[in-house]
Amino acid sequence: MTDHKPYMKPYEEEIKTFSWDISKNELGYKDGDVINIGEYCTDRICRMGKGEKLALIWEGYTGEEKRYTFNDMRQLTNSIAKYLTELGIKPGERVCLFMDKVPELYFGFLGVLKMGAIVQPLFSAFGPESLLTRLQDAGTSAIFTQKKHLPKVRNILKDLPGLNHIIVVDDDGVKPLREKETAFNMDKAERVDSFDIYPSKAETPSVLHYTSGTTGKPKGAQHVHYSLISQYMTAKYVLDIKDDDIYWCTADPGWVTGTSYGIIGAWSNGATQCVLDAGFKSESWYKFIEKHKISMWYSAPTAIRALMKDGTETAKKFDLSSLRHLASVGEPLNAEAVIWSKEAFGIMFHDTFWQTETGCIVVSNYPGMKIKPGSMGKPFPGIEVTVVDLKTSVPIEKKGVVGMIAIKPGWPSMIRTYWNNEITYKSKFQNGWYLCGDRASIDEEGYFWFVGRDDDVINTGGHLVGPFEIESALLEHPAVAESAAIGKPDPINMEVVKAFITLKPGFDQTKMLELEIMNFVRKKLSALAMPQEIEFVDTLPKTRSGKIMRRVLRAQEWGEEIGDISTLENDM
Ligand code: PRX
Prior knowledge:
Elements lengths: L10 H7 L2 H8 L9 H5 L1 H8 L3 E7 L4 E5 H18 L6 E5 L4 H12 L3 E4 L6 H11 L3 E4 L4 H7 L8 E4 L12 E3 L21 E7 L7 E6 L3 H10 L8 E4 L6 H13 L3 E6 L4 H11 L3 E4 L1 H9 L2 H5 L8 E5 L5 H11 L3 E5 L9 E2 L13 E2 L5 E4 L14 E5 L9 E2 L3 H6 L1 E2 L2 E10 L5 E6 L4 E3 L2 E3 L1 H9 L4 E11 L3 E10 L7 H14 L8 E4 L13 H9 L14
Parallel strand pairs: 1-11, 3-4, 3-5, 5-6, 6-7, 10-11, 10-12, 12-13, 13-14, 26-27
Antiparallel strand pairs: 1-2, 8-9, 9-19, 14-15, 15-16, 17-18, 18-21, 20-21, 21-22, 23-24, 25-26
Helix pairs in contact: 2-9, 5-6, 7-8, 9-10
The protein binds adenosine-5'-monophosphate-propyl ester (PRX).
């Protein structure tokens, strides 16, 4: 193992001297140059003499293992880029990745970028309705998928006239493919040694990540190739990935962590990373760490709480001594989990805070910096973060006062718009600040303490789920008259979805109906969006203008103060 001294200088020193030029210089990029994330993660690493270094160690749920060097990855991403070009996909078109965490997902991501199209990763557990909404919104032309997910795509194809290419990565020829469907086997594809990579510039669109808000449909957060400048640097300084580290980011690339740090940040730093394409189980996770000698592990509070539930003794059954740095993202990392990680692994999880929209970590605990368990840490050097007054959006000077987390626009990986929705994008900025929609306070020493979201978005196991999408799905059920979806407390997932429903006349409030409605949502959207509990009510709290007041239901559920209900129309 190399020197364990963190890459980043002590925080107070770094903050004085940091500039994004450090990142640009290290990446050999000058303003105005061509910058293509696909090239930076593969060809450039090979040019640096690391072609034979392992880029990906992949393990499937059956225990099957595949290994690829940076040179393999360079050639295979070229193969994908060439294949898409030959299909007639043009730069700027949207290409969706709808796959489990198979190697094709990772290399597909970089292959799409290499030929200049916009990559749209979607979580493979999405049901047909969640998928349809996002493909329609993006006007997607091609989708990579696996046999097992093909029925979901076929199901919605009639509503997607622009989706002309369905690329099946594991077709075995047993059942014939249909019109518009084509087979592409990456491991057997011709290896392309040289491909004319699309000369994207800083502002060329790169990744389109769908994220949920309180109202309306999910929004496509539009990133550009320049995001690399932030992602490279934060992966290096926050995750502290060294040349001989074995890195494991547990996030699925359907979510931003899985792309910013599960692909771009890691590989632009030339890191070897492991991927486990299997569900969560404490013992198999520990076994995976032990087997591959994982040294840097980026995970999420829900997983940590689930590991904690299985006890320190389970962790102690394995040799986890390879671990040297741990980080977490997605939801509040409670102090107990930080303290427990020290007990179980001998080192603490470092909380990091950011969003799909920020593209990179913005507040964090840094290697070497004192950790205050329960705090998210301090702003990344080069990114100005504060908390602002909830009404005026003016920065709050007084320490310990709760406000909205706000960031000064201009960091390299900030989204550039929401796809076809500039109005919502603009609404995120007030008084010269980008507003995160999260509440926090800052203490005397400059540490941020998360309080909660400032809207109705539900965070279940680190995944944001929009109440509107769930309510819309619920309303499609023949028995449902009105509905409201909120997050209710959960010891492992922090929140799970709970729905309040009024029934149409003629329907009875039965357990059977409750289960049927739950299943209805699971099939349409996903298991994450499925209400874990349904409460049948006679009426829902509404404003005088008829808007359902989710916050009243939420406050009741969490045993909190309801706050101002002067606009409430009906008695509960
Ligand atoms: O509410 C915050 C929560 O997750 C939201 C962002 O979700 P998403 O765009 O899906 O990206 C997740 C991974 C980057 C935030 O607005 N969140 C994220 N990290 C933390 C957090 N809440 C508390 N503590 C965190 N460390």
